[in-house]
Amino acid sequence: MTFNNQAVSVSSGAMEYRKLGKTGWNVSVVGYGAAPLGGVYGKLNEKEGIRSVHTAIDLGINFIDTAPYYGATASETVLGKALKGIPRARY
Hints:
6 strands; 2 helices; two-stranded antiparallel sheet
């Protein structure tokens, strides 16, 4: 797998999960912070942002943090594009 034109080694089953309170949900111990998708830290290349979401999900991350304040809903919009077509059970 590559990310930012660099090879990334991915071990199957490496992500750890914990139960989220009394919900019964297994949540990855590492989350994906979506603020950059809203351009909070500078101009966003949307294709790269979407690819970063796909990479996070492929690595087993299923906890995604976003808010309407991240780029005046831009983060949520890009995240929606990234998640389109991905089965809900994966995140």
